[in-house]
Structure formats: C-alpha cells, structure tokens
Target: Kinesin light chain
Amino acid sequence: MRERVLGPNHPDCAQSLNNLAALNNEKKSYYKAEELYERALNIRRKALAPDHPSLAYTVKHLAVLYKKLGKLERAVPLFELAVEIRQKSFGPKHPSVATALVNLAVLYCQMKKNQEALPLYECALKIYEDNLGHMHPHVGETLKNLAVLSYEGGEFEKAAELYKKAMEIKEEEMLVMGGKATSHHSSTGDTLSIKSAFSHNMYFQHGPR
Model:
C-alpha cells in the first residue's frame, strides 16, 4: 500500500520493509529477511543522512543477519559503516563507538583475521577506560578479548597478565552486586584458564548492539 501511494523509494516504505524483515527474522525465514533488509537499506542510503538513526538500525540488523548466515565478507563493510555512523553521531571517543569497534573486531576474529581485530580492541579499550573507568565491566570484557588474541599469537605472559586484570574487574563487579569473589589467579592459572577457554573455542566478545 505504501509503495503505491508514496512510491517505492520513500523512507516510509523502508520502515515497512524493516518491519517485515524483523518479522521474517523472528520466524527464522532468514533469506526472506535478508532480501527485505537489503531493499530497506538501499532506500535509506539514498533518502537519509549518513548518520541518521534509521539508517544505522538497518545497517546493524542486516550486518548481524549476514553474520548469522555465514556471509562474513558481506558483513564487514556494514559493521565498518556502523562504526562510521556512530562516530558521526556521537564523536570518535564515545562508548557507543567502542562497542561498534568491538562488534567489528569480533567479526574479524571469526574470520581468523586477528591482526585486523587487535587494533580495534585496543582502541575500544582506550575509549572504555577514558569514559567508563578502568574497572568497568566493558573494560574487563575487552581485556579478555585481548587476552585470547595474545594467547593465540603465542604471547602467553601478556595473555596471562591481561586475563588477570580482567578477572580482577570481574571479581570487583561481583562484590558490588553482592556476590562472593574468588581469590586472584596466579599467572599460570590465568594462562591455563585461557587455554581451557580456547580449547573449547570460547570467545568472550560482546555481541552486536
């Protein structure tokens, strides 16, 4: 109906396509959702400003869907675009930008491109620390991600140190929430913990937000 009244390239049509895509995604009709999100993205790229929230919404959901479908190469430019949109919307040092950087880093790790992921995690860590403090859970999660990368790169002592810092933040978080903190691990214990996690192919990254 909206296409007939407003024309196929009107932003309101993109909203309808987004809604249908989300519905198909919930029903696990992923390829239909992909088609609808792609149509919505094409409209919004032409009709909206490059930092418009509606464009960001479609970019994010299509990127996540590509990732779910294993189309990782197609997801990369969308996750990169998500970083650019957040930088334009909030400034380059905003925590939201850090989260977008982490999302892109997670994707690179899945593609076995750890060297591309490393500077993204490091940049995200700096942003989180500067904005949220050195003991924030996001800092701890990013440190664990960096620990895994260091371990995979054969830098075992560095991995152990990063993991130890991450566990200290986690224990502090548990205390604040009223939980019981465990004693700090030794460097050897940290390395073994990372090895155990890695052997089960367990990564600690944020999911997309």
Q: What stands out?
A: The first helix runs from residue 2 to 6. The radius of gyration is 20 Å. DSSP finds ten helices and no strands in the chain.
